[in-house]
Amino acid sequence: MPSTELDNLVATGQLAVEPPSRSEFEGLEKSGTTRLTDARNGALAPESRFDLAYSAAHALGLAALRWHGYRPKNRYIVFQVLVHTVSMPNPVVRVLAKAHHPEGAKGPPAFDVS
Questions:
Q1: What is the pTM of this model?
Q2: 32 lies in a domain?
Q3: How far apart are CA 48 and CA 73, in angstroms?
Q4: Cβ-contact 51, 13 below 8 angstroms
Q5: What is the 3-state secondary structure (H, E, C) of the chain?
Q6: Which of 24, 26, 45, 102 is buried most, with the most CB atoms less than 10 Å from its CB?
Q7: What is the pLDDT of residues 29-58, one digit of tens each?
């Protein structure tokens, strides 16, 4: 599914065009949903829950990007393009991007994953 915005990122070297793979998509979707379910486990430490939720968001975001026929050149771009791959609102994208690279933060952000 062509996208002018995503194609611009190909031109800058941040994405590569690659035909989607159903098996890769299904594997990423399964990984994301499993990790999201595990992140809701209140018996786990908050840091573990955060890691699981973050990994779930990345896997599901990558699945969406691959569905559209693109492969990222770095991890961070997966969150930045959610606006174009799943029509995610900008404020939500900013939260995920900040969780990826919090400014001056040590440890996980203090927000609830339940």
A1: 0.81
A2: yes
A3: 26
A4: no
A5: CCCHHHHHHHHCCCEEECCCCHHHHHHHHHHHHHHHHHHCCCCCCHHHHHHHHHHHHHHHHHHHHHHCCEEECCCHHHHHCHHHHCCCCHHHHHHHHHHHCCCCCCCCCCCCCC
A6: 24
A7: 999 999 999 999 999 999 999 899 989 999
